[in-house]
Amino acid sequence: MPIPATSPVASLTASIASYICVFLCGAVVGSFLNVCVYRMPRGLSVVKPRSACPACGAAIGAADLVPLLSYAMLRGKCRACGAPIPFRYPLIEFMCGALWAALFWRLSLSFEYVCYVALCSILLAVFFIDLEWMRIPNKLVLCAMLPAVAVSVRYAFALSPPDRFRSVYGSINAAAPLLGLAPCAVFLCISVASAFFRGGKCAVGMGDVKLLIPAGLALGLRQGLFAMFISIMLGGLAGVLLIISGKKNRKDPIPFGPFIVAGVTAAIFIPMPLF
Predict the structure, then answer these.
(1) Which residues of 19-37 are buried (b: 16+ CB within 10 A; e: fewer)?
(2) Fewer C-beta within 10 Å: the chain N or C terminus?
(3) What is the dihedral of CA 264, 197, 193, 239, to 10 degrees?
(4) Which residues face 77 on adjacent strands?
(5) Which pLDDT tens digit goes with each residue over 184-199?
(6) Which are the contacts of 38, defined by CB distance < 8 A and separation ≥ 6?
């Protein structure tokens, strides 16, 4: 006997299929983010030439570019030379897919979903680039500005006050997106002050300050402050653990961009009333 289209089983099946589709789309975008993470810090184009093995230079065929599956089938090694493929590649693909699915659960298919999924994908590339190179490419910050400005404009002008209140901003103030730049201003002041008292050495990099501009526009004041709080707490905890373990001393620089990314992501998923 056929199952009615409106049955709970059919609805559950459709829902699971939607999440799988969203995850796979995110994993494909994650595959492109891998290209950005490898090439952008090296000053290479992310468009051409085609992907190749960094060890032997052999071009990677289409069959070996399938997200997650190719890494498993190749057992983490280059088909041509057998050089190990960094685990970062499937990790970014999985994380991007998971982010897309989680945001789909959080916001459903909406204008906000498109903006935040674009922002989080860009921030994921920032996370790994800053973690390895301790710098944040300006091109990624500019790319992050596009979805941030789009969602802030919609929030300020296109939503009614009740809709604003129910949004992830947690505020009914139409100027909240602009007020969300307050964390950026705070970090800028910290950077300038630290440079003054430490003989030109900034405690906070300008890349971190610039990254807070799209983050603040996308989050608004309350969630922006929440993101800054989470970033500082995670960064401080990581610094203490690194010093205790002997891997860093107090004078060694620590990339702060990954903690900003973690704070922004947390602020998107955790509504203000819970904070």
Answers:
(1) beebbbbbbbbbbbbbbbb
(2) N
(3) 10
(4) 84
(5) 777 777 766 766 666 6
(6) 44, 54
